[in-house]
Amino acid sequence: MLKEQLLKIKEQLGFNSNDSESGSAKEDTLNKNNSNKNNKTLKLRRGSSSTESKKPSRVKPKDGTRKSKKRSKNDDYQLKGKRETVKSNKRKKRKKIIKQQEAPLVLISDFISSEKKTPLKVAENLKPKYLIPKNFVSERKGLWDFGRKPEDTTLIFDINSNEQLPEKDLVIGLDFGTAYTKVVIADETYAYPVMFEEAGYLLPSELYITKDGTLTLNKQKSALVFTKLKHPLLFGNYTEDDNIVIIAFLSLVFKSSRNWVATSPFRSHNVNWLLNAGLATDSYHNITLKEKFGALVDLAWNVSYLDRITPTIIKTLIKDSTQLTNKLEQLHLTLPHDCLSVFPEYVAQISGYMNSPSKRNYSHLLIDVGAGTLDIVMFTTKSIDGEWRYSTNAKNISNLGADILKAHREQYLTDKNSSLDSLLKNVEVANKLSISLDELNSLDSEFAKAINLRLRGVIGKVAGGYKFAAQITTFICGGGREIEFYQKQLDILKNHPIDLIDLPPPNRFQPPKDFEVEMFHRFSVALGLSYDPYNIGECEVNNVEAKIPTSKYSPSEYILSSK
Q: Coil, helix or strand for 270?
């Protein structure tokens, strides 16, 4: 009776009688949903905070009052699912980056370098703003002011030859430098530096002209001097007058070199000459420059057999040298094509080092601070079955030598007729310019940046983005290496494991007693050029790959080889 009354009340309130029959099923479904909800919340907590910690978003209604707008549980779940997906993607991206950083090393050492994975900031690929100063020009004024007479075109030969003497092949290694010219003459066994009378072993690259128009290396009784002889070759802006003074200077160098042989250990021989000339270029295959310089050297060799050299004679021979060439060919004094070679200067330096008993394996850095150029070369060496080989991995030859620095600083002289006598100490330069050291550093900033970028570029290219794991055998050569400015720029090398040593001379080098041993690094180019051209070889640029030794007790098995 009571049950019937309750059912009647439910019907009046709108309840369906079938609900009572499915009540237990609904309760089971609700428990199941609560269980799934809890499981989903736990999963979210592993990657993010719980739903309860999230503040509800607020929207501003049109009437200006603020009311809370609660998100549904389904909205919260979808939002957190998106956040979880984003975080998961970030983790994957970071893992990918780390994996790239742990790639095998490109370089570097003689022992297990691939265990070293310290990233190194790669040099910026920037072009320095520094430009060659406008006051750095070659003057040829006065070349035609002396001795212009018709008889100046007469060819008078100066030939001394004794065919009865035994023949001997000798090689002239010519380093035509911006500031000084060096010559080494050698046979297969020994090499000797050539001494130029009053100038000594370092011949200033200057040409003098007398009042009668004769071109000479003798400063005494000269009426005019021509300097910066090599600059047109460095900058590619040579004129006919530039060619004349280069040919005249080199011809006088060759004449003096042959005269030196008459009092040398080779004096009792009739000499067959080979000539190797160095060229300041970073490309072995710079055909245009090689042919240009080679033609000048070839004509200079023929002109060197003339008794008197004048600008008019050389100008005539540049147009037509048939008469001179035919005469010398009859006497077998011309240089055959295969006896005259032109090599990049850094190739000669490396070749000389490779013939030294003190040569080492693996990574090397060569820096030559010359008067005209700054040469930076990284190369690797290795010995395979007793045969030594080398290859260059990065290089930069730029017109940032000491003469360029001097011209750069002289722009700021108050007295335009004066010049800087010395660049060795920055204090002396600052005093000469009447400025402070800080102001000098500011003036030199673009020049310094240009050097810095080139150093970082060469080293960074070889390192491949990583630090070196072992020492790099390093040589600093050239007449400008003692200048304080360049020494400061080379401080960047302290970030690398540099083993700085003097470039060792080969055993074949036989300097006289009055030759200063400390001066050898300035003869490294000429000495390297004094080898038979077939023993100098070509220097190819290659990448470097690292090989891990099969045994940690055999470091010699770890080599840097060319790809």
A: strand
